[in-house]
Each structure stands twice: as structure tokens, then as C-alpha cells.
Recover the amino acids of this structure.
């Protein structure tokens, strides 16, 4: 079944540095989404990139998508302590049915 | 309301008891989703509703799990005869409709089965 897999599983960096997380998936998609989760509770939608897009920006976030490699990356620039969280990529199973399949997530820690 | 709400926030129950988890979606959102997050399985899809209809129940782990939605709004996820492996965070999300890709998540219900 289609599944996103994040890499690395955990990342620890100093405040101010950039953080890059990667996601791979298995089947064709029409979009890929990134979510953030603080303290194991609700997820917050960060950004959505469509299959016909290669790069997208939102504030300090930059997402790329390479459909030929079935991979995406999330870059957080100028990291802050508040960015400490788990980050998940998610892909819908088929167009029109938004059953999201999530990867295992990357645990990001920003050290002051 | 301003966001998706879920109740209770935490639930501790004894093995074999039934539990009901409630989700209140964003007003006007016709699509509603239930997910479960556990240490061993990560985030997994359980069921979704479009209006009051649940076309896809394939994610429900067993027949002890059921969900309903009435009035196109509030949804209840019921787990009968709870088992320890049901311990997890149960997350609810809603979207404007099935074609709006962004899902808005509630804070979750943390269920612990002793």
C-alpha cells in the first residue's frame, strides 16, 4: 500500500540552522502534504504541493516534490525553538477520496 | 466553532469496557475523518464520513469498532469490549468536502486501556 516514509527519524539542530526532512512514497499521487504535531496531539497542516508543482514556499518553509523519484523534502530555514515538533508527510490514496496515509514522521528538536 | 474539538481529552478504561469518543467538526465541513495514532502503528486511517454516510470502513481494525455521524455534524467513535492494544490517541479531522485536500485536526483523545 502507498505510504510515506520520512528520513531522518530524528533530527537535532541548533537554533538558527536549517532543517531538512525527506519523504518517500510508493504510488502515484495528485498531491503531498506536510503536517506538524506538537506533543503527540493534534496535527497542523503546513503546506500542500500538487503533483504538477516542483517547489512551493510558505514563510520559512520550502517544499520540493520530485514525482520521478517519488520523494519530497521539507526545508525549515532559520529554525526556532518553537519549531520543535514531529513532522509528517501525507498522501491521499486516490483523487477525490482524501484518506491520508502518513509516514512515520521526523522528530525535530531545536536546541537553543 | 473555531476548530475541530474532541472529547474527552483523556480516557482511562478497564479492559472489556465500552468507550465512546466524540468529535465536533468545524461548522460547515461535510467531510469528517477518524485516525488512530499508536506507538507501534504510527498514524493510521480508520474511517471517513461524507455527510452522514461512511463509504469506506476498511480502516476499522475490528468489528468492535464502529462510528456514526448524525445531522452531518458530530461524530462518535465507539469501541466495544476494549483491549489493551486499543490504547492510542484517536484523532478526528474535518474538511470542507472530500475534494478539499486540507484536513483540519482536533487535539485528539488519548485512550488508555488498563
Amino acid at each position: 500500500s502507498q505510504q510515506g516514509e520520512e528520513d531522518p527519524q530524528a533530527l537535532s539542530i541548533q537554533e538558527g540552522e536549517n532543517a531538512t526532512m525527506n519523504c518517500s512514497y510508493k504510488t502515484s499521487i495528485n498531491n503531498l502534504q506536510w503536517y506538524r504535531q506538537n506533543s503527540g496531539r493534534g496535527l497542523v497542516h503546513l503546506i500542500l504541493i500538487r503533483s504538477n508543482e516542483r517547489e512551493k514556499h510558505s514563510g520559512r518553509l520550502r517544499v520540493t516534490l520530485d514525482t520521478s523519484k517519488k520523494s519530497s523534502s521539507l526545508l525549515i530555514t532559520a529554525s526556532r525553538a518553537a519549531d520543535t515538533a514531529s513532522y509528517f508527510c501525507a498522501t491521499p490514496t486516490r483523487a477525490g477520496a482524501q484518506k491520508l496515509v502518513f509516514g512515520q514522521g521526523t522528530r525535530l528538536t531545536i536546541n537553543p | 466553532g473555531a476548530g475541530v474539538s474532541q472529547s474527552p481529552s483523556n480516557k482511562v478504561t478497564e479492559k472489556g469496557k465500552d468507550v465512546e469518543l466524540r468529535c465536533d467538526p468545524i461548522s460547515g465541513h461535510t467531510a469528517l475523518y477518524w485516525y488512530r495514532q499508536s506507538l507501534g502503528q504510527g498514524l493510521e486511517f480508520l474511517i471517513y464520513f461524507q455527510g452522514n454516510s461512511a463509504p469506506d470502513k476498511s480502516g476499522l481494525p475490528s468489528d468492535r469498532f464502529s462510528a456514526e455521524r448524525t445531522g452531518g455534524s458530530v461524530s462518535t467513535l465507539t469501541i466495544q469490549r476494549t483491549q489493551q492494544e486499543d490504547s492510542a490517541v484517536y484523532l478526528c479531522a474535518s474538511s470542507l468536502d472530500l475534494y478539499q485536500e486540507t484536513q483540519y485536526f482536533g487535539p485528539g483523545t488519548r485512550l488508555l486501556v488498563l
